[in-house]
Amino acid sequence: MTAFGMGFDGVRLSLLGIVLLFSQLPALARPPQSTSGGAGNRLVDATARAEDTRGHLPDQGNAGNISGRVVDRTGGVIAQAHVKLSREDQSSGQDALSDSGGNFTFVNIAQGPFQLTVSSDGFATQIYTGTLQAGETCIVPAITLAVASASTEVLVSLSRTELAQEEIRDEEKQRIFGIVPNFYVTYDSAAVPLRPKQKFELAWKSIVDPINLGMTGAIAGFQQATNGFAGYGQGADGYAKRFAANYADFVTGTFIGGVILPTFLKQDPRYFYKGSGSIRSRVLYAIANTVIRKGDQGQWQPNYSGLVGGLAAGEISNLYYPAANRSGGEMFKNTIIAIGETAATNLLQEFVIRKLTPHAPSYAPAKP
């Protein structure tokens, strides 16, 4: 300790000694009192205090005690449980805590009905009622506390990937007349963008669908009947070549325009049904969707996936179509025809196909 600190402590001790000394001076100066008088005064004071408190303290002859024990359902003691004693004639009760053995006691309690409210963290509150007789030591049965039931509210929300998966399940059920697949249209204006894996799943379900395979076969049969792509010849061999060429067109067009380019360019390969507004606005919307497409971020973009995908698929078809049908002019002509076919399909989607699709899902209509 510093010299300053030692000096300060010395002053404090000196002042304390002076105060104590002066506090004893009145006692030293007071004359001695009579012994008999002092005893009489003390007796009078005690009597007065007894009279003052009579009616405020319980009658000792009628007062009793209440004790008990707090346990759990296994019989284990519960320490520090809060026990509140309530009486009908008292606005406030008495409180106690159970000890390490789970025991509690209330002493000097007036006779009559009483209520014990027992609580502890993690346990449900229990109430015990009874009546205390005059002079009785009431030992209540062990008060058993049950573990409080936990009420947990679980909010379940789907991730964007899960929401998109639910949309795909709806789309895979969309069939014209309940038969013809109509997977590449969504009736949800706020449809969640598809993940690359989901774009592949939608394409795969489309190309392996039995109805699509049957329609490919029907187209091949019509071409053979009209001698389309004459270079393939006739007979079973000619039909097989036409079927293979048509199915190859379907597969390459679906994967390039519906999976590869939409994944790379982050575009949605589906047609977003409008379903509201004037006829004119819906017609223009359907036609415009041949050259525009919604991006994965929700904004409209040039339809690079569809247009470039059509050209790429046409270029690939030169590998298996007859030589007479492989010119570049033929490829661009087919691309123009494909745009026109897409516009016609979109118009049908907007005004006809939904009416022919049983159990089509209902969502809010697309915004203009």
What does this structure look like?
Helix content is 45%, strand content 17%. It is α/β, with parallel strands linked by helices and 368 residues long. It folds into two domains: 82 residues, Sandwich (Immunoglobulin-like); 197 residues, no CATH class. The strands form five sheets. Strands 1, 4, 7 and 8 form a four-stranded mixed β-sheet that branches. It has a four-stranded antiparallel β-sheet with strand order 3-2-5-6, with no helix packed on it. It has a two-stranded antiparallel ribbon with strand order 9-10. Helix 4 packs antiparallel against helix 6 and helix 7 packs antiparallel against helix 9. The N terminus is likely disordered.
